[in-house]
Amino acid sequence: MASADRSDLVRSTGDVMVRTVDLVRTYQLGAEPVHALRGVNLEIKRGQFVTLKGRSGSGKTTLLNVISGLDTPTSGTVDLLGHDLSRASEKELLELRRRHIGFVFQSFALIPTFSAFENVDLMLRIGGFDRRERSRRVREVLELVGLMKWAGHRPYELSGGQQQRVAIARALANQPEMVIADEPTGELDSVTGRQILELFREIVDSEGVTLVMATHDPTVEDYADFIYELVDGRIQEAKDMRNYLGDLSSRTRTTEVAR
Ligand SMILES: Nc1ncnc2c1ncn2[C@@H]1O[C@H](COP(=O)(O)OP(=O)(O)OP(=O)(O)O)[C@@H](O)[C@H]1O
Ligand SMILES: [Mg+2]
Questions:
Q1: Residue of 27, 67, 230 to mutate, ligand 1, most atoms within 8 A of C-beta
Q2: CA nearest 52: which of 176, 167, 183?
Q3: Which CATH code fits 3-258?
Q4: How far apart are CA 98 and CA 93, in angstroms?
């Protein structure tokens, strides 16, 4: 996809997926409080590729957990798709996650005795889709991640990069609005990691999905729309990478060539 199409997409999807206000998360570890988030304000718009960077312990995973309703903030609010999460019941949170969010983890989290097809299919079975619809959608997402030929393979018969592609297909299976990815390239070599970031970029563009990714991977600068730098539970810097579109920066060129 040309970069012009991409910036049009971002401009035309102005609505807010996630908004946090003064988000604080303090863990109590024995007598000592651990300040994982110390007042995070951010806004994530539909159709964006958003990255959280920062050193180990800076609060990336905590922030992902809180914005997806897996964890509850100590104070402050999260608005997810127009829902104030502090007012949502456990059941509503579960439903929000199941319908609207796909998760991708560092260690893939595939079921080892299931084929690629079955791993993706399981997500749709949980969602209550009928067999024919499931079969169609599983093929569609495996095609999207370039793995249709490996549909019958089990995780141990796949490379790390291929396993992560299965996990991405699984996350996309029931067409969530948002994908949360915590260090998805953390266990991959740098070449494979770049391919996975490239795939995420393509998916954000082609499916219109919103991606929020925590990563240490510096390569992500070539693919993300926004980068938030976390330092000790606070956002220290917010970089709008789309400003680089339209000029001749190496970023735009690299992304173009890579596709
Ligand atoms: N369940 C918990 N109980 C107590 N402290 C926690 C808990 N989860 C996280 N923390 C602490 O909160 C802080 C932020 O942790 P978090 O996992 O969000 O960091 P991170 O940026 O994801 O780090 P990494 O890059 O290593 O994954 C750390 O000091 C961590 O020790
Ligand atoms: Mg983490």
A1: 27
A2: 183
A3: 3.40.50.300
A4: 8
**Average pLDDT in the 6-19 region?**
58
Using a 6 Å cutoff on CB, does residue 20 contact ligand 1?
no
Q: In the predicted model, what is the mean pLDDT of residues 85-93?
A: 92
Read off the pLDDT of residues 132-191 as tens digits, 9 standing for 90 and up: 999 999 999 999 999 999 999 999 999 999 999 999 999 999 999 999 999 999 999 999
CA of 84 to the centre of ligand 2 (A): 24
Rounded to the nearest angstrom, the distance between the alpha carbon of 57 and the centre of ligand 2 is 7
In percent, how much of the chain has pLDDT > 90?
83
Angle between helices 131-144 and 116-126 (to 10 degrees): 130
Domain positions in the chain: 3-258
Question: Which ligand has the minimum distance to the alpha carbon of residue 181?
Answer: 2
pTM of the model: 0.89
What is the distance in angstroms between the CA of the first residue and the CA of the last residue of the chain? 8
Nearest to 67 by CA among 110, 37, 91, 35: 37
User: At residue 51, does pLDDT exceed 60?
Assistant: yes
d(CA 141, CA 155): 17
Closest residue (by CA) to atom 28 of ligand 1? 57
